[in-house]
């Protein structure tokens, strides 16, 4: 059940829990009713257009869609992350995770295995656009798994990403299902093991992952991102100047 606290400041107990478990939540950024027009805008404007990265249409739509920019910089998310990473925060990328009925399993993995950031500092907020349940393949996490770097090996052909954590390196009995209502989100570290099963239901499952770091981290424009990629300076100031930002895009 999502926290009902009416401010976005983390308690000391929540900070300690994040350090211990590498994850927090769920929290609510908005109600399911408030999410409805945003979901409609995403369906119309994001899922039917190419976006800024020609090879990854689900990536970095904060660059071209105002609704996505607003979700990515939402104070319920950013102010909580400020309690963990400090007052200056960069949303370095965003990624929709769309799983239509029948969509493949996403195997257990640690995101930092795949990412172009140095040093490896990131908190992800995964916000539900649709109602997300066990039935339509919610995110699964292993609390505490962020304290160890796990070797990754080649995933099998039926999986949605090309590498997966070594199955001998984690304890699946510790896995937790992260069911979320539309507008709810959880937070997790760049090293937290997470996955989602094949979507065997007849319901679509859409979420947005918002990747947050700090200004001293370098974001490399390698194959994962694209030339011209811009981040959001979501809070505070950037006195480092390593990365490139843009403001809120205007409506189409
Ligand atoms: O949405 C999913 O099932 C996987 C999400 C994920 O791997 C991520 O946000 O890093």
Structural notes for this entry:
- The protein is of the alpha+beta class and 252 residues long.
- The chain has one domain (12-235): Sandwich (Jelly Rolls), CATH 2.60.120.620.
- It is built from four helices and 14 strands.
- It has helices at residues 12-21, 32-45, 66-72, 75-85, and strands at residues 23-28, 89-99, 106-109, 117-118, 123-128, 139-141, 152-154, 163-165, 176-178, 184-189, 194-196, 205-213, 218-219, 232-235.
- It has a six-stranded antiparallel sheet. It has a four-stranded antiparallel sheet with strand order 3-11-6-9, with no helix packed on it.
- Strand 7 (152-154) and strand 8 form a beta hairpin.
- The mean pLDDT is 95.
- The structure holds 2-oxoglutaric acid.
- 2-oxoglutaric acid (AKG) binds at residues 97, 106, 111, 124, 126, 139, 194, 196, 207, 209.
- The site of 2-oxoglutaric acid has 10 residues, from strand 5, strand 11 and strand 12.
Annotate the secondary structure layout.
Blueprint: H1 12-21, E1 23-28, H2 32-45, H3 66-72, H4 75-85, E2 89-99, E3 106-109, E4 117-118, E5 123-128, E6 139-141, E7 152-154, E8 163-165, E9 176-178, E10 184-189, E11 194-196, E12 205-213, E13 218-219, E14 232-235
Antiparallel strand pairs: 1-10, 2-12, 2-14, 3-11, 4-13, 5-10, 5-12, 6-9, 6-11, 7-8
Bound molecules: 2-oxoglutaric acid.
2-oxoglutaric acid is lined by residues 97, 106, 111, 124, 126, 139, 194, 196, 207, 209.
């Amino acid at each position: 059940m999502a926290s009902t606290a009416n401010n976005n400041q983390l308690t000391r107990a929540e900070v300690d829990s994040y350090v211990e478990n590498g994850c927090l939540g769920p929290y609510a950024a908005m109600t399911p009713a408030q999410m409805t027009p945003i979901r409609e805008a995403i369906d119309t404007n994001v899922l039917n257009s190419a976006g800024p990265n020609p090879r990854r249409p689900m990536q970095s739509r904060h660059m071209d869609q105002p609704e996505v920019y607003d979700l990515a910089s939402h104070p319920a998310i950013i102010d909580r992350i400020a309690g963990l990473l400090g007052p200056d925060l960069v949303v370095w990328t965003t990624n929709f995770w769309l799983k239509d009925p029948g969509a493949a399993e996403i195997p257990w993995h640690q995101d930092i295995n795949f990412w172009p950031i140095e040093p490896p500092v990131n908190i992800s907020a995964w916000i539900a656009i649709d109602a997300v349940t066990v039935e339509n393949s919610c995110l699964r996490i292993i609390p505490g798994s962020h304290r160890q770097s796990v070797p990754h090996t080649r995933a099998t052909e039926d999986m949605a990403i090309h590498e997966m954590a070594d199955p001998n390196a984690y304890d699946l009995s510790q896995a937790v299902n992260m069911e979320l209502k539309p507008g709810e989100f959880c937070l997790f570290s760049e090293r937290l093991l997470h996955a989602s099963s094949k979507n065997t239901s007849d319901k679509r499952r859409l979420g947005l992952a918002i990747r947050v770091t700090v200004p001293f981290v370098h974001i490399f424009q390698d194959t994962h991102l694209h030339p011209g990629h811009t981040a959001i300076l979501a809070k505070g100031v950037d006195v480092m100047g390593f990365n490139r930002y843009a403001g809120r895009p205007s409506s189409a």
